[in-house]
Amino acid sequence: MSLLSATRSFTRSEGDMEVADNSGQQQLDPASVSRLQHPFLRTMRDRGYLFQCTNLDALDSAMMEDANFSAYLGFDATADSLHVGSLLQIMILRHLQKSGCKPVVLVGGATSKVGDPTGKDESRKMLDDESIAKNVEGISKVFEKFLTFGDEKASSDAIMVNNDEWLSSLKYLEFLRDMGTYFTINRMLQFESVKQRMSRDAPLSFLEFNYMILQAYDFLELSRRYKVRLQLGGSDQWGNIVSGTELARRVDRSQVFGLTAPLITTSDGRKMGKTEGGAVWLNAEKLSPYEYWQFWRNTADADVTRFLKLFTELPLPEIDELSSLTGSDINSAKEVLADAATSLLHGPGCLPSIHETASSLFASRGSPVFETSGLSRFPLPRSELGTARAASLFQALGLTGSKKEAKRLIQGGGARIGDVKIEDENRCLEEGDFEDGECVLRAGKKKAGVVFLE
């Protein structure tokens, strides 16, 4: 996606402050983009992360002048693990820290109770406090893999905060009186997240309608508590981010900034992180390192160079060399991508086992005996032998997204037990399918999982 892609913004001056909106059309000024000085913004530009900014020149100057510059990104706790769709934002935080700035990870313990309506046709499932606490614990693990956490006062040590600290203690009438006057219904109706829901005649509850106000208030609180001056996010969050910059300007007369990255889709138009087998989770207990590696190894040819820039830290000259590969040679670039991306999340120590599994699983169709330690695993009680259908187990292992999809895989001849093709969609696993208590199910040429007896 071009750095000069159109954004939905316009600016007007009010005193020495700039106000950004999300209506109209504007492009990032090519001159501003070309003369960026701060290492973080140059990285954003050169690796393809830069999409929208409320005031790029002023942000660049502010970052150059402030050695303790801090920025934040928010993540709602709607599941007990983040998935690859969130990885772009995590990589941005990592680059921010490497440039000497302070990353603030905001976990939405409170906003998870409301639900962001952006890009959705249905309201989120309501979560109780216990579920949200479990999800917060689950997603927090990932950030420690990419960021260095430490002293709140240290200039570049990352910190993690939860907006439940301030949002859950707000008194409703006082909040309405103090903050409600800064938001107009007319303006809120112009935000893309609202317009899209209404254009599809999808219900938008008053609860969800308040989400943008709460996100704006988060920015105000973070600017007060931690001197945060920049909110980062995906381009779908542009309206919410702009609301936060305006609220800080109008309430505290402070200049803060918003910057977004493009939403990433694959070359065939699919949303990043979604596959036929479901979400590509970042927590190892939900997706094995081998399956994660295989996801990147299966990247489409047209996406390899772009993903090397976005999801690895390989130097750009090295990526340029890999981008020149064509034909079957491009598989070497895919393996470099898979190794680099997997090392960042799971550590380089997992790669030898992954390589052994990949080699032994797919190099020879003649032997059903191979390394299985890197594959996803599912327990099967012995009492269910003869009744547990293979189609259900394909779904349980994440090899297909549903039993219906597993049945189509069987009908198409792509499902195997070891090296034996499954002919019957109602086929059940028997004692003879297991060797040393394990049975390998294979979906196509590149996906496999292990059912083990317990």
Structure keywords:
454 residues; alpha/beta; Rossmann fold; Tyrosyl-Transfer RNA Synthetase; Structural Genomics Hypothetical 15.5 Kd Protein In mrcA-pckA Intergenic Region, Chain A; six-stranded mixed beta sheet; five-stranded mixed beta sheet; 19 helices; 15% strand; globular; disordered N terminus
Short description:
Helix content is 40%, strand content 15%.
Would you give an account of this structure?
- The chain has 454 residues and is α/β, with parallel strands linked by helices.
- It has three domains: 10-261, HUPs (Rossmann fold), CATH 3.40.50.620; 288-367, Tyrosyl-Transfer RNA Synthetase (Orthogonal Bundle), CATH 1.10.240.10; 375-454, Structural Genomics Hypothetical 15.5 Kd Protein In mrcA-pckA Intergenic Region, Chain A (Roll), CATH 3.10.290.10.
- 40% of the residues lie in helices and 15% in strands.
- The protein has 19 helices and 15 strands.
- The protein has helices at 30-34, 39-47, 56-65, 87-98, 129-146, 164-167, 172-179, 185-188, 192-199, 206-209, 211-226, 238-252, 289-297, 304-311, 316-323, 330-346, 351-362, 390-396, 403-411; strands spanning 10-14, 17-21, 52-53, 70-76, 102-108, 159-162, 230-234, 257-261, 274-275, 278-279, 376-380, 415-417, 420-421, 438-443, 447-453.
- The strands form four sheets. It has a six-stranded mixed β-sheet, with helices on both faces. Strands 11-15-14-12-13 form a five-stranded mixed β-sheet, with helices on both faces. Strands 1-2 form a two-stranded antiparallel ribbon.
